[in-house]
C-alpha cells in the first residue's frame, strides 16, 4: 500500500522533470546554433578592427598563413598570364613557367609574413584612391555580402572605398581547430566590359 501511494507522486514529479530536460536541451541547441552562426561574423569584425587599429598581432592570430600564401601566389601567377605566353611561344615554356612560379613563391614567402604584415596592409591601403580610416573599414564590412559556402566555410565580399568599379574584395574563412581562420583573400581587380557592348553604344551614337 505504501508503494501504491508513492507511485503517482513519483510520476507526477518525473513528467515536469522530463519537460525541463527537454527545454534545457532545446535551449542549449539553440544557443549553440546561434553561436555557430554568429562566430564567423565576430571573426570578420575582429579582422576589420585589427586592420583599422593597425593591430597586426591580433590580425596575425586570425590567419592561416599557408593557405593565405597559396591564394596570393595563385593570384599573382594568374595576373602574369603565363599560360597565354606559353601558347604563343614554344621556347622552353615549362622552364619559363617554373622560373616565374619560383620567383613569385619566394617573393610571397619573404614579404607576406607575420613580421611584414603591417607593411603589406599599409601597401594595400595606400593603393586605394580614397583615404581609408576605421570608419570606412567598418562601414564597408557592415555592408558586405556574406554567405556560408559550406558547414565549415564562410565568405564575405566587401566593396572597398575607391574601388567601386572593380570586383569586391573577397575574404574566405574556414573552421580550423574550432576557430574561424582567414584562409583566402581575393583582391579587387578591374571589371572587363564586353567588347560588343562598346560597339553597340558607338553604333547608336
Automatic annotation (TrEMBL):
Q: Which UniProt keywords apply?
A: Membrane, Transmembrane, Transmembrane helix
Give yes or no: UniProt keyword Membrane.
yes
Q: Where does the chain cross the membrane?
A: 23-48
The protein's matches in InterPro entries, at most eight in alphabetical order, are given as:
DUF2939 (IPR021330)
Q: What Pfam families does the entry give? A: DUF2939
Tell me yes or no: is Transmembrane helix among this UniProt entry's keywords.
yes
Q: What is this protein called?
A: DUF2939 domain-containing protein
| Protein source organism | Acetobacter aceti NBRC 14818
Upper lineage: Bacteria, Pseudomonadati, Pseudomonadota, Alphaproteobacteria, Acetobacterales
Amino acid at each position: 500500500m505504501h508503494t501504491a501511494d508513492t507511485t503517482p507522486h513519483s510520476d507526477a514529479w518525473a513528467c515536469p522533470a522530463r519537460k525541463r530536460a527537454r527545454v534545457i536541451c532545446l535551449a542549449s541547441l539553440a544557443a549553440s546554433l546561434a553561436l555557430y552562426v554568429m562566430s564567423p561574423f565576430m571573426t570578420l569584425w575582429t579582422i576589420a578592427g585589427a586592420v583599422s587599429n593597425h593591430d597586426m598581432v591580433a590580425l596575425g592570430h586570425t590567419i592561416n598563413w599557408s593557405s593565405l600564401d597559396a591564394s596570393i601566389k595563385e593570384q599573382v601567377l594568374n595576373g602574369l598570364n603565363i599560360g597565354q605566353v606559353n601558347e604563343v611561344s614554344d621556347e622552353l615554356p615549362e622552364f619559363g613557367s617554373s622560373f616565374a612560379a619560383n620567383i613569385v613563391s619566394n617573393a610571397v614567402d619573404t614579404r607576406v609574413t607575420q613580421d611584414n604584415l603591417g607593411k603589406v596592409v599599409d601597401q594595400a591601403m595606400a593603393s586605394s584612391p580614397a583615404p581609408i580610416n576605421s570608419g570606412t573599414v567598418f562601414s564597408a564590412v557592415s555592408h558586405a555580402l556574406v554567405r556560408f559556402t559550406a558547414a565549415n566555410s564562410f565568405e564575405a565580399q566587401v566593396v572597398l572605398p575607391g574601388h567601386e568599379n572593380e570586383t569586391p574584395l573577397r575574404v574566405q574563412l574556414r573552421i580550423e581547430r574550432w576557430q574561424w581562420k582567414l584562409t583566402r583573400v581575393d583582391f579587387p581587380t578591374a571589371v572587363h566590359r564586353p567588347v560588343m557592348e562598346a560597339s553597340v553604344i558607338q553604333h547608336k551614337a
